[in-house]
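Researcher: Last one for today. Full complex below.
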Amino acid sequence: MNRVSFRPCTLQATLGKRRSISTNTARFALPPTILQILARNEVDEKVTVTGWVKSIRKQKRVAFGVLSDGSSPTGLQAVFHEDLGERVKQITNGTSICVRGSIVKSPGSGQDKELLVDEVEILGECDPETYPIQKKTLTPEYLRDYTHLRPRTGAIAAMVRLRSHLMRELNNYFANQGFTYAHTPILTSGDAEGGGEAFRIAPVSPLPSHEFFTHPAYLTVSHQLHLEALSHSLGRVYTLSPCFRAERGVTRRHLAEFWMFEAEWNVIPTTDPRAQTVALCDFVEGAIKGSVGESGIIHGEDVNALWQHREHDSSSEDDRAKAREAVVLAVTSNAAWPKISYSEAVRELLKSNIDWEFPVRWGSPLQTEHEKWLSETLVGGPLFVTDYPAAIKPFYMRANPAMEGEDETTVGCFDLLVPHAGELVGGSVREERLNKLKESMQSKGMDMDGERYGWYGDLRRFGGGPHVGFGLGFERLLGWVGGINNVRECVPMPRWAGKMDL
Amino acid sequence: MNRVSFRPCTLQATLGKRRSISTNTARFALPPTILQILARNEVDEKVTVTGWVKSIRKQKRVAFGVLSDGSSPTGLQAVFHEDLGERVKQITNGTSICVRGSIVKSPGSGQDKELLVDEVEILGECDPETYPIQKKTLTPEYLRDYTHLRPRTGAIAAMVRLRSHLMRELNNYFANQGFTYAHTPILTSGDAEGGGEAFRIAPVSPLPSHEFFTHPAYLTVSHQLHLEALSHSLGRVYTLSPCFRAERGVTRRHLAEFWMFEAEWNVIPTTDPRAQTVALCDFVEGAIKGSVGESGIIHGEDVNALWQHREHDSSSEDDRAKAREAVVLAVTSNAAWPKISYSEAVRELLKSNIDWEFPVRWGSPLQTEHEKWLSETLVGGPLFVTDYPAAIKPFYMRANPAMEGEDETTVGCFDLLVPHAGELVGGSVREERLNKLKESMQSKGMDMDGERYGWYGDLRRFGGGPHVGFGLGFERLLGWVGGINNVRECVPMPRWAGKMDL
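Model: Here's the assembly. Have a good evening.
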């Protein structure tokens, strides 16, 4: 069993002393994966591997197969000699086999090691006439109709592994910063302010009053408010959890079911309230640089494999290489990502003299075309836009003190815009002042003292304090890091209006 | 910034070389938590901490407060001298404050270090007259009506941290065993075989045909089948994900929304099929012992805090100490957890001469009273019961070869029973043989070639192979490890029939 030898000292204190027990490790461990075998230095090691044949080249006296067990984009070259007999002839792409043999130095180019097969057993055939996943280039659109089989393609498998690695790195980063991962509920009383975008649970009998929970239940659109309840006890909390939107509009950036990484935490008060927004942006930049750049993920095999999948993208090879280099630079450079205020962004957009489809005006939301220009043209990289007008932002954002050049109230918030993926993260300082929160809710027609939001007011009534938070679209982060064009290829089994397979 | 120094060598290969970049760490790091401060050796260190006052004892010239920031069950003793003036008088339990001062060796007993406060700022008052979370013992029932505030109690906060730690250890364990964490969907086409226990998404217009996805959508009751699709490419996959059951029955072991840890993976074929079930049980035992015992969680502060919360339990102090010792022994002992077949279990139950409420008969499911007796009386610890009759188990379990003493077909499966928490894990060898799967589905009135399960058959049609899997009730594991009596106290914001707050 591979023991976890890492333990940050601060976790150790809570977890207690790790007792050494000599469990019978052989009884518990699974055999090594291809990734593990290839990472070791042993040669002449006897191994047994099960997996799928990704390709096979049959010669007169020998056959060369590439075997994948899903553990890495790199397969294991398996060398079948003629004395293995008829069985090898049955092997086609997609066949599941079990092989026993020795790992030896490979005389061929393209791999350091290979497996000299002593024994082969066919576990499951794969009829090349009817198998929907053929060697030929398969379009994303075609594969979306084979949700159960498309993980067998290199791009989807690499994406699923990248999700796992990225989650792991984010977990490490946030644990080291003193955060607790909290499971907030999926079923909630909130209907996203009646916007009609929340999925509703059907009543259990034809009478609408027969609600399972006695009142209507919806699928959550954001975990923020629930996380705030937890941050008011646990201090620093986050979650990576599914969210849902019944949006009819179908774009390459939206899913009906998607995963959000959301965090909420308490901060030390500052004399200049705008400094909290700056610190919040810095923290988010650090979390992304730490988990994507410093972790090594950006240089990993799965990210390499994803950027090589040209069928996801119609841009030229050169443009694609440049796009990748920009992402690598963004997450590995010491240079801070620029921050500009909404008001400055509006000035830059007006100065550009571009004939925008949506007119630029202080007080209007930034549209996709504006965001795209700001990050892709003005900055050429990630960009924080901060301090938006209060009127176009949700009730819970903290009002800024009045500032020259801003006619109306702004709030301490930011959107992180990145080239290609658009808005990647949004966050804000939360309004912790009870009277200000009440005003803000009233201005949006909400009642802080009513049944619906009374609990949210309680968080401020009883020992509230300055706190901040953000939400990061996990599929968008994957798309940005892996150069994946459409969020439908950023989640194993995507759901959108009109489409839910399995 | 606390850097993550751990990297299992096998992950390294996929992630690429970790580049060293000297990011401006001060810009990104949050200030240390109380847990981090107490774990360090520094004294006379200047710190700034925000948090909540858990208790305050005011003397004539000095006041002693205990401050919590949610990072650990142990608070930080803060010493307020009289020159801090009026502000200290305002402090009551639950008040949110920011303190600046020096960490010094504590002259008092009960803590090694304390904070000598130089400055104190009140961030949020907490009116002792109206604050619902008073010092007096609060019952779990009372607290369930204050979902947003109950994380402020020691027991709920410890439970949330324990969830986070346990998840982290499980993630480490499974990553080291070569698994990928996969996000399977919450919205599915499956209605749990029409058992009426799946929540259904309401159509978006009054006409039932106006489905958002064109066909009815349900909330998943298990991620297994979807995970199987992924394991047929990625080899070893798992998830920790919400599941839903619209069960009207209300027990201390059931929630409408709960979290399942589910894993599926490929195995090397064996000549004796029953050996797969044995190996599967061994693996599950290793995963629990590794993540709960060997990780140190079982001896950690949060588990200690949870077992000390007597209000969760009506048993005597002595019985509770014994119950805890049994859990510690189970997860730290080298001794293998016993395995008995269903047939042996039935024989033992009959031999017991107990007057069971539900009669014991080969072919009937084991009832809670039977399971309780087997784990608590017969074994006094965790117990695997294996090889149940096929007729009482789901279609996807692998048929065993016929065996003496068993009149009907059994399947290669197990339930892990533990004292107090009951069935903790269930798993099986999955039926990988296409014809056997078809027979099994037909016997349960299902059509493998139909639209509904055609995809599941495809997994066997195209390169299938022997594979196994299990599902672990995450709340039940927490309840067992932390001695928590009711699963409603095992999740931050529980939902059950008639109850969904926030």
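The mean pLDDT of chain A is 90. The CA atoms of residues 387 and 412 of chain A lie 5 Å apart.
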